[in-house]
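Quick log. Single chain, no ligands specified.
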Amino acid sequence: MRFTSLIVELIRARPRLVVWLVVLLQAALWLILPLLLYRSPPGDVATMLAFGREYQVGTDLGPPLAFWLADIAFRAAGNHMFGVYLLAQLCAVATFWILFLLARAIVGGQQAVLAILLTLTVTAFSSPGAEFGPLVLARPLWALLLLHSWQLIGQNRRNAWFAWSIEAGLLLLTTSAAIGLLLLIAGFAFVTVRGRRMLMSFDPLFAMLVIVVLALPWLVWLIRADMLALPSWPAVADLSGRALHWGKLLGGLLLAISGILVLVVLNSGWLNRNPEETPIIYRPPVDPLARNFVYFFAIAPALAGSLISGLFNLDGVVGGAGVALMMSGLAVIVAAGDLVHLRRQRVLRTVWALAVLAPAFAATATSLFLPWTGGTEVATSLPAREIAHFFGDSFERRANQRLRAVAGDPQLAALISLDAGRPHLLLDAAPQRTPWLTPAKFNETGGVVVWRASDTSGTPPADIAQRFPGLVPEVPRAFEWLVTGRQPLLRIGWAIVRPKGP
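-> predicted structure:
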């Protein structure tokens, strides 16, 4: 008698239930873990919130939509990071559900579940997903664009044009990589017969009108700020180094999908001795155009994004690894054929669980054990609330008014800008990046200048002292880390710039 596990039966009978269970469990994991382990926002979230509270149409960090949404979520949660973490996980849940709808339209509901399970092992959707920003917000928008692009190209559903145009406009307001992603969609449509037939109607013209209307404020800001120029092309002598950088980016993408690769190898028929005993997940035949659609958008965003980043020496893949690798799981399922055999189910379940939970274990180990191994600083261990409260309260007691602005060390100043009064952030080393506050205005309204103190005297660094002449340092304030370990206490030097009278 053939034995079939409960999980396989659930995949066959209730595919949507399985998707909701695994997606919500992962979202709960990455909602609870930052709340327990992170005493300060991860990545550049604090700076993003400082920029978002100004509600600028555009900044040098990119289009404004993610910044606005982050500030709204932060305020709605009572100036607590819970709102931002929740927003990030809502984006993750929306991404996977939309991806499931797309996969179901191509390979059927049962194999669509397998595509989602594989995609969950991609590391780009784990801890980086807790750092809400343009790259995280772009994921559900890109998934929606792919879904409606397939409905337009493959299913000839003209009613999808309106939703597609809105999503394209919102993506332009989210990430600078949106133009390249939209060009990929247009390129795929142009090289296919059904795609060219779709483009010959008047619907694309109306869609372009909606996109322009949505993105017009951002486009106007780009023109006024003279930000439309492309980065400078590398010199011939630098091409070898750029090619090496491109190789490293591609290697990083392969490492991110290593969980998928391991699961594929373990499920291969080469290692199976009893092929007749394996359960099978069936699907109807896949449309050749759908196969090309999946392969194209599984390879083109990763290849083009890494190539552009390597050519112009950018730190990460253009568009983000989450967008580049979104279709990787579905591409593997499409390539597997109409019958997917699930061999060595216990081994597959164990490896899948380890691949999903490994980033959580790594984040926990980094926060709790890394400080004991040396003097390495864990950025999320800075006591953000204590730092912000101390300097906000100190300024209010001495100046008899709430803190209105903060400058100095960018990392510390961004954390202080999260105080309940939400003081403005001034990047005094590059004031053009914070046009809402100039150094002259800062000296007029007053504020706090902070820096990392290397001794108990609290002498400001030379560059800060030069930008703020006459600065009188206060006694440095020491703060404890989440886990002190072998690290010394965090000492912050500070000085008050008193507001000028009327």
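Strands lie at 280-282, 339-341, 405-408, 424-425, 447-452, 477-479, 490-497.
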